[in-house]
Amino acid sequence: MKDKFFLAGMAAMVLSFGLVLAGCGDLSGRPNGTGNNNGTGDSNGTGNNNSTTVYKVGDTGPAGGIIFYDKGFVSDGWRYLEAAPVEVEVPGIEAGTWVPNGTSVGTGSGKKNTEILVNYHEENGQTGKAAQLSNALVYNGYDDWFLPSKAELDLMYSNLKSKGLGGFSSGWYCSSSAASFGMWAQSFSNGAQADTNWNGNYDKTMDSSRVRSVRAF
Predict the structure, then answer these.
(1) In what order do the strands lie in the sheet with 183-187?
(2) 3-state secondary structure (DSSP) of residue 203
(3) Residue 206 pLDDT
(4) In this structure, are residues 128 and 211 in contact, taking their beta carbons and an 8 Å threshold?
(5) Which residues contact 133 (CB under 8 A, 6 or more apart)?
(6) 3-class DSSP state for residue 19?
(7) Residue ranges of the chain with pLDDT lower than 50?
(8) What distance lies between CA 98 and its chain's CA centroid?
(9) Would you say 125 and 82 are in contact if contact means Cβ atoms under 8 Å apart?
(10) Distance CA 97, CA 181 (A)
Protein backbone atom coordinates (compact mmCIF):
# COMPACT_ATOMS: atom_id res chain seq x y z
CA MET A 1 0.00 0.00 0.00
CA LYS A 2 2.82 2.37 0.90
CA ASP A 3 4.46 1.64 -2.46
CA LYS A 4 1.24 2.57 -4.28
CA PHE A 5 0.99 5.92 -2.45
CA PHE A 6 4.65 6.60 -3.15
CA LEU A 7 4.29 5.90 -6.89
CA ALA A 8 1.13 8.01 -7.13
CA GLY A 9 2.92 10.92 -5.43
CA MET A 10 5.87 10.69 -7.80
CA ALA A 11 3.55 10.70 -10.81
CA ALA A 12 1.82 13.83 -9.57
CA MET A 13 5.17 15.59 -9.12
CA VAL A 14 6.29 14.67 -12.63
CA LEU A 15 2.99 15.87 -14.08
CA SER A 16 3.24 19.14 -12.18
CA PHE A 17 6.81 19.75 -13.32
CA GLY A 18 5.81 19.08 -16.94
CA LEU A 19 3.05 21.64 -16.69
CA VAL A 20 5.51 24.22 -15.37
CA LEU A 21 7.84 23.59 -18.33
CA ALA A 22 4.96 23.79 -20.76
CA GLY A 23 4.02 27.17 -19.30
CA CYS A 24 7.52 28.59 -19.97
CA GLY A 25 7.37 27.65 -23.64
CA ASP A 26 10.49 27.99 -25.81
CA LEU A 27 12.98 29.94 -23.70
CA SER A 28 14.83 31.01 -26.85
CA GLY A 29 11.72 32.95 -27.92
CA ARG A 30 11.74 35.28 -24.94
CA PRO A 31 12.62 39.00 -25.46
CA ASN A 32 16.41 39.25 -25.33
CA GLY A 33 19.30 41.39 -26.49
CA THR A 34 18.52 40.80 -30.15
CA GLY A 35 14.79 41.54 -30.09
CA ASN A 36 12.87 44.53 -31.44
CA ASN A 37 13.18 46.58 -28.27
CA ASN A 38 16.96 46.69 -28.15
CA GLY A 39 19.62 48.94 -29.65
CA THR A 40 19.07 47.63 -33.16
CA GLY A 41 15.29 47.40 -33.22
CA ASP A 42 12.50 49.63 -34.41
CA SER A 43 12.38 51.79 -31.30
CA ASN A 44 15.94 53.08 -31.36
CA GLY A 45 17.82 55.82 -33.14
CA THR A 46 18.16 53.83 -36.35
CA GLY A 47 14.67 52.35 -36.50
CA ASN A 48 11.37 53.40 -37.97
CA ASN A 49 10.71 56.05 -35.33
CA ASN A 50 13.52 58.35 -36.49
CA SER A 51 12.54 62.01 -36.43
CA THR A 52 13.17 63.99 -39.62
CA THR A 53 13.64 67.73 -39.26
CA VAL A 54 10.92 69.70 -40.99
CA TYR A 55 11.82 73.21 -42.16
CA LYS A 56 9.72 76.15 -43.24
CA VAL A 57 10.67 79.13 -45.37
CA GLY A 58 12.77 81.54 -43.34
CA ASP A 59 14.28 78.87 -41.08
CA THR A 60 18.03 78.46 -40.72
CA GLY A 61 19.08 75.49 -42.82
CA PRO A 62 21.54 72.73 -41.91
CA ALA A 63 24.39 74.55 -43.68
CA GLY A 64 23.71 77.80 -41.80
CA GLY A 65 21.88 79.49 -44.67
CA ILE A 66 18.17 80.28 -44.94
CA ILE A 67 15.42 78.05 -46.33
CA PHE A 68 13.59 79.68 -49.25
CA TYR A 69 11.67 76.80 -50.80
CA ASP A 70 9.90 73.62 -49.68
CA LYS A 71 8.34 71.48 -52.40
CA GLY A 72 6.61 69.39 -49.73
CA PHE A 73 8.15 66.01 -50.51
CA VAL A 74 11.47 64.42 -51.41
CA SER A 75 12.17 63.72 -55.06
CA ASP A 76 15.40 63.60 -57.03
CA GLY A 77 17.19 63.52 -53.68
CA TRP A 78 15.95 66.82 -52.29
CA ARG A 79 12.98 68.67 -50.78
CA TYR A 80 14.34 72.06 -49.65
CA LEU A 81 16.37 74.87 -51.18
CA GLU A 82 18.69 76.80 -48.89
CA ALA A 83 20.31 80.14 -49.75
CA ALA A 84 23.81 80.82 -48.48
CA PRO A 85 24.06 83.55 -45.82
CA VAL A 86 24.81 87.13 -46.78
CA GLU A 87 28.39 86.97 -45.54
CA VAL A 88 29.39 84.73 -48.46
CA GLU A 89 27.52 86.74 -51.10
CA VAL A 90 29.88 88.01 -53.80
CA PRO A 91 29.24 91.34 -55.61
CA GLY A 92 30.37 92.56 -59.03
CA ILE A 93 30.62 89.19 -60.79
CA GLU A 94 30.14 88.31 -64.45
CA ALA A 95 28.18 85.20 -65.39
CA GLY A 96 30.45 84.60 -68.39
CA THR A 97 29.59 84.19 -72.05
CA TRP A 98 26.30 82.69 -73.12
CA VAL A 99 26.13 78.89 -73.06
CA PRO A 100 24.25 77.82 -76.21
CA ASN A 101 22.81 74.50 -75.06
CA GLY A 102 21.86 72.51 -72.01
CA THR A 103 20.77 74.89 -69.25
CA SER A 104 17.19 75.14 -68.01
CA VAL A 105 15.14 77.78 -66.22
CA GLY A 106 12.98 75.68 -63.88
CA THR A 107 13.10 74.95 -60.17
CA GLY A 108 15.50 72.10 -59.52
CA SER A 109 17.72 72.80 -62.54
CA GLY A 110 20.30 75.08 -60.93
CA LYS A 111 22.68 72.34 -59.87
CA LYS A 112 22.86 70.78 -63.33
CA ASN A 113 23.07 74.23 -64.93
CA THR A 114 26.05 75.04 -62.73
CA GLU A 115 27.85 71.86 -63.78
CA ILE A 116 27.28 72.74 -67.44
CA LEU A 117 28.53 76.29 -66.95
CA VAL A 118 31.61 75.26 -64.98
CA ASN A 119 32.61 72.79 -67.69
CA TYR A 120 31.99 75.39 -70.39
CA HIS A 121 34.07 78.06 -68.63
CA GLU A 122 36.93 75.65 -68.09
CA GLU A 123 36.89 74.52 -71.72
CA ASN A 124 37.03 78.15 -72.83
CA GLY A 125 39.71 79.27 -70.38
CA GLN A 126 37.35 81.49 -68.33
CA THR A 127 37.92 82.02 -64.61
CA GLY A 128 36.18 83.80 -61.75
CA LYS A 129 32.69 83.49 -63.26
CA ALA A 130 29.53 83.26 -61.19
CA ALA A 131 28.96 79.53 -61.61
CA GLN A 132 32.59 78.79 -60.79
CA LEU A 133 32.38 80.78 -57.56
CA SER A 134 29.23 78.97 -56.44
CA ASN A 135 30.68 75.60 -57.38
CA ALA A 136 33.85 76.29 -55.36
CA LEU A 137 32.06 77.55 -52.24
CA VAL A 138 32.60 75.63 -49.01
CA TYR A 139 30.66 76.92 -46.03
CA ASN A 140 30.08 75.27 -42.64
CA GLY A 141 31.55 72.09 -44.08
CA TYR A 142 29.09 71.95 -47.01
CA ASP A 143 30.47 71.99 -50.55
CA ASP A 144 27.31 71.24 -52.57
CA TRP A 145 26.45 74.87 -53.43
CA PHE A 146 25.42 75.96 -56.91
CA LEU A 147 24.25 79.01 -58.84
CA PRO A 148 20.43 79.21 -58.80
CA SER A 149 18.38 78.86 -61.97
CA LYS A 150 16.07 81.63 -63.18
CA ALA A 151 13.10 80.15 -61.29
CA GLU A 152 15.13 79.48 -58.14
CA LEU A 153 16.42 83.05 -58.18
CA ASP A 154 12.84 84.30 -58.37
CA LEU A 155 11.88 82.10 -55.41
CA MET A 156 14.65 83.76 -53.38
CA TYR A 157 13.29 87.15 -54.33
CA SER A 158 9.65 86.26 -53.63
CA ASN A 159 10.12 84.22 -50.46
CA LEU A 160 13.04 86.06 -48.87
CA LYS A 161 13.92 89.49 -50.28
CA SER A 162 10.32 90.71 -50.62
CA LYS A 163 9.73 89.73 -46.98
CA GLY A 164 12.86 91.39 -45.66
CA LEU A 165 14.72 88.12 -45.11
CA GLY A 166 18.21 87.03 -46.12
CA GLY A 167 20.06 90.34 -46.15
CA PHE A 168 19.78 90.80 -49.93
CA SER A 169 20.72 94.02 -51.66
CA SER A 170 18.50 95.77 -54.19
CA GLY A 171 20.93 95.10 -57.04
CA TRP A 172 21.01 92.48 -59.77
CA TYR A 173 21.70 88.81 -59.07
CA CYS A 174 23.09 86.17 -61.42
CA SER A 175 21.28 83.00 -62.45
CA SER A 176 22.63 79.86 -64.09
CA SER A 177 20.02 79.89 -66.87
CA ALA A 178 20.88 80.94 -70.40
CA ALA A 179 18.60 83.52 -72.05
CA SER A 180 18.27 84.32 -75.76
CA PHE A 181 21.60 86.13 -76.02
CA GLY A 182 23.14 86.20 -72.54
CA MET A 183 22.23 84.87 -69.10
CA TRP A 184 19.13 85.54 -67.02
CA ALA A 185 19.60 87.92 -64.11
CA GLN A 186 17.10 89.42 -61.67
CA SER A 187 16.75 92.80 -60.05
CA PHE A 188 16.14 92.45 -56.33
CA SER A 189 14.81 95.99 -56.34
CA ASN A 190 11.57 95.17 -58.15
CA GLY A 191 11.82 91.50 -59.13
CA ALA A 192 12.32 92.14 -62.86
CA GLN A 193 14.26 89.51 -64.78
CA ALA A 194 16.33 90.38 -67.85
CA ASP A 195 18.66 88.94 -70.44
CA THR A 196 22.11 90.26 -69.61
CA ASN A 197 22.99 90.63 -73.26
CA TRP A 198 19.92 92.51 -74.46
CA ASN A 199 20.55 94.74 -77.49
CA GLY A 200 24.11 93.42 -77.57
CA ASN A 201 24.98 95.27 -74.35
CA TYR A 202 26.44 92.40 -72.34
CA ASP A 203 27.53 94.59 -69.43
CA LYS A 204 24.07 96.01 -68.70
CA THR A 205 23.74 94.09 -65.44
CA MET A 206 26.56 91.63 -65.04
CA ASP A 207 29.29 94.11 -64.19
CA SER A 208 27.49 94.78 -60.93
CA SER A 209 25.64 91.49 -60.45
CA ARG A 210 25.82 89.56 -57.22
CA VAL A 211 26.21 85.85 -56.60
CA ARG A 212 24.10 84.23 -53.90
CA SER A 213 24.76 80.51 -53.94
CA VAL A 214 22.16 77.93 -52.97
CA ARG A 215 21.99 74.23 -52.17
CA ALA A 216 19.32 71.52 -52.33
CA PHE A 217 18.75 68.84 -49.68
Answers:
(1) 172-178, 183-187, 193-195
(2) helix
(3) 52
(4) no
(5) 90, 93, 147, 211, 213
(6) helix
(7) 1-51, 202-205
(8) 28
(9) no
(10) 9
